[in-house]
Specification:
Blueprint (H helix, E strand, L loop, with lengths): L1 E2 L2 E3 L6 E3 L8 E3 L6 E4 L4 H21 L3 E5 L2 E5 L1 H10 L3 H30 L7 H11 L5 H15 L4 E4 L1 H19 L2 H11 L6
Antiparallel strand pairs: 1-2, 2-3, 4-5, 6-7, 6-8
């Protein structure tokens, strides 16, 4: 909970006044000693670099096949969206939609959204869309489940190994790298710092 420059501890609900921190500093609740927020050094710069790398890997992962299978001399390759569409064609529409949303649409929304937010902040710009865009990215983050999709792919590969020659494609390695970069960016980016910049740059309400 937060109102103006007041902030409530998420552990004990103690309401206290928010103060500016030096780079690398952190605010601690005087009652329960929980860390309230921090001022990370170059949080936005590092997160932006990681998200640029994630965007590149996302493109590679969706352009190159995730896996190739060879059965009786016939070779089949599959992209993520093709796999989702094939599930739909085989009557597994709900599974296909779930794969499309969690492995393609929501990761795309997270990557594109964060780039659209972090790049203007890095350049000192504050377009009006930043506040609703950051809210949308934060709300959609739990639905981006590339790691769950890749776990399902690995399980399927193990089951198919005795029936066909299975070869991991470039897309699979790109998705593994994407998982690492997204997790790294999430731990690097300090949402409190982003909100602080947005609030400082917000126009004052008219009298």
């Amino acid at each position: 909970m937060k109102h103006s420059n007041l902030i409530a501890c998420h552990e004990c609900d103690l309401l206290q006044r928010e103060v500016a921190l030096p780079p690398g500093g952190k605010a601690i609740c005087p009652r329960c000693q929980t860390t309230l927020y921090t001022h990370s050094i170059d949080s936005i710069d590092r997160a932006l670099a990681l998200m640029l790398g994630a965007a590149l890997l996302f493109v590679i992962g969706n352009v190159f096949p995730v896996v190739s299978m060879e059965i009786q001399g016939q070779r089949t390759e599959a992209l993520v969206w093709q796999g989702a569409w094939r599930l739909h064609q085989e009557g597994e529409t709900l599974v296909g939609v779930t794969v499309f949303l969690t492995a393609f649409l929501f990761p795309l929304l997270q990557i594109a959204g964060l780039l659209a937010i972090l790049l203007p902040l890095r350049l000192g710009l504050t377009p009006r869309y930043l506040v609703p865009a950051f809210r949308l990215v934060e709300q959609s983050k739990p639905w981006s489940m590339v790691e769950v999709f890749m776990l399902g792919v690995l399980v399927s590969l193990v089951k198919l190994a005795h029936m066909a020659t299975v070869v991991p494609g470039v897309g699979m390695w790109a998705f593994f790298g994407l998982i690492v970069l997204l997790a790294w960016a999430s731990s690097t980016l300090n949402p409190h710092e982003v909100w602080a910049r947005l609030e400082v740059s917000a126009p004052e309400p008219a009298a």
